[in-house]
Automatic annotation (TrEMBL):
InterPro entries documented for this protein: MFS_dom (IPR020846), MFS_sugar_transport-like (IPR005828), MFS_Sugar_Transporters (IPR050360), MFS_trans_sf (IPR036259), Sugar_transporter_CS (IPR005829)
Mode of membrane association: Multi-pass membrane protein
Lineage of the organism: Bacteria, Pseudomonadati, Pseudomonadota, Alphaproteobacteria, Hyphomicrobiales
UniProt similarity note: Belongs to the major facilitator superfamily. Sugar transporter (TC 2.A.1.1) family.
Residues that span the membrane, as ranges: 24-49, 61-81, 90-108, 114-137, 149-174, 180-202, 257-275, 295-313, 320-339, 345-368, 380-406, 412-431
Protein name per the record: Putative MFS transporter
Superkingdom of source: Bacteria
């Protein structure tokens, strides 16, 4: 039988498996859409909360980074919980948390309440990161696994772009509405509600069931939902007893370091810059009369992400990661070294190149850890890498306004470029190529490639 992920003629049986794989991918991606939405609205709403809340600069930094702090903790804890309790049990819980906390943001009366809600939202996001990557990796064929995992970031950028654009439009239409910031923050309940409904009825991962020795259940679900090739590969994977400490064992420590460092190096400058983008553009003398220049950059984020997804199975994981780190570092270094009297077109060009490169490379954030860690610690590995990445992002988001005040925009951009170069070096040294491999093979991929593999 022809592989169900090929692009030729498909039998009705093939189409049944493909339809389910698409449903799993969409449902798993919903958390990323909510994550992007949640982060975008805080960047727009924070300047408006001064009309209703007395927020100090320190508290502004804390609130801006609160969801990232929560994601750090949630990734470290709930990835492990997901590997222990199963994927299905956590899937609805995270969306329920998104829904409730989004609504409660409308009713906050002091900055501390808003900070606590944002941390809880981050906890739910961290849990959802671990679940989503595992679900897509464990239900999809090898041809669809890469684009499916990479596509998670497309949903993140859709959520980020739609929420930011909607918020800017609302501000333009209702500039004098005193509680507009409350409406903007609470708006994330809409995608959370839709995605929670869509997730009802999804089965447990058969790979997770098999890893727990529940073979009868695993066979039954695999027979119903997995295409024959993926089903056969499922039972090739060895069952091992692995716990949290396995991430730091000699066998997996380089994988843990690679996924954590490259993810952190990608998003630390991104989150810091984009949450405070209006102030940075003003400091760089970008003479836009409105916020529409920001929307252009958000659109390039989405375009870059779509390009990254299209290259996952063509260019390969390793080359895409290395090339996009180069594209992320250069514009930040240009803005950092030549930081006075930038022509407006150069500022915009640098941010476009940065946005495009960052977004294309970020498609690997969920893909690499989901592919190179075994089933027993897959969610744990994804959660740990996500948590460590958000630790850097939270630190960058908190410190950026302080750095802007102490040193100015140029040195801050230079630091972002240096962080990107660190990601480039680590990726060149350790990033494996997993293109075209079954999931049982990717967990054995060489993390420190040979010279010939690096040059390939």
């Amino acid at each position: 039988m022809e592989n169900s992920a090929s692009y030729g003629e498909h039998s009705p049986l093939d189409k049944k498996f493909e339809k389910f794989q698409r449903k799993v991918t969409v449902c798993a991606s919903g958390g990323k859409l909510c994550d992007g939405w949640i982060l975008a609205v805080i960047g727009v709403a924070l300047p408006l909360t001064s009309t209703g809340l007395d927020i100090s600069p320190t508290m502004e930094g804390l609130i801006g980074s609160a969801s990232l702090i929560g994601l750090f903790i949630g990734g470290l804890v709930f990835g492990w919980v997901t590997d222990k309790l199963g994927r299905q049990k956590m899937f609805l819980a995270t969306l329920a948390a998104f829904l409730v906390c989004s609504i409660l943001q409308f009713f906050v009366t002091d900055p501390t309440q808003l900070f606590v809600l944002r941390v809880i939202l981050g906890l739910a996001v961290g849990a959802d990161y671990a679940i989503a990557g595992a679900f897509i990796a464990e239900f999809n064929s090898k041809e669809r696994r890469g684009p499916g995992l990479a596509g998670l970031l497309v949903w993140w950028y859709i959520g980020f772009t739609v929420a930011a654009t909607m918020s800017i439009v609302l501000i333009s239409v209702m500039p004098d509405y005193p509680d507009l910031w409350r409406v903007i923050l609470a708006s994330s309940f809409l995608p959370a509600l839709v995605m929670m409904v869509l997730r009802i009825g999804l089965p447990e991962s058969p790979r997770w069931l098999a890893s727990k020795g529940r073979m009868k259940e695993a066979h039954a679900i695999a027979e119903q939902y997995l295409d024959p090739v993926t089903r056969q590969d499922l039972f090739k994977e060895k069952i091992r007893s692995l716990g949290y400490s396995a991430l730091f064992s000699p066998q997996y420590i380089k994988k843990t370091a690679l996924t954590s460092i490259f993810w952190m190096a990608q998003i630390t400058p991104f989150f810091a810059i984009y949450i405070f983008l209006p102030k940075i553009l003003q400091d760089l003398h970008f003479s836009s009369e409105s916020s529409w220049g920001e929307i252009v950059l958000y659109i390039f984020l989405l375009i870059g992400c779509l390009v990254g997804v299209s290259l996952i199975n063509r260019l390969g994981r390793r080359k895409l990661l290395i090339y996009t780190f180069i594209g992320q570092a250069i514009p930040l270094l240009v803005l950092g070294v030549w930081f006075s009297d930038h022509p407006a077109f150069l500022v915009l060009l640098c941010f476009i190149v940065f946005a495009f490169s960052h977004a294309a490379g970020s498609t690997l954030q969920m893909l690499y850890p989901s592919e190179i860690f075994p089933t027993e610690i897959r969610a744990t590995g994804v959660g740990f890498a996500a948590g460590m990445s958000r630790l850097g992002a939270a630190a960058g988001t908190f410190l950026l306004p302080i750095g802007l005040a102490l040193w100015g925009t140029g040195p801050v951009m230079l630091i972002g470029g240096i962080v990107s170069l660190i990601g480039l070096v680590v990726s060149y040294a350790w990033a494996p190529e997993t293109k075209g491999m079954e999931l049982s093979q990717t967990v054995s991929a060489e993390v420190a490639p040979s010279r010939s593999q690096r040059q390939a």
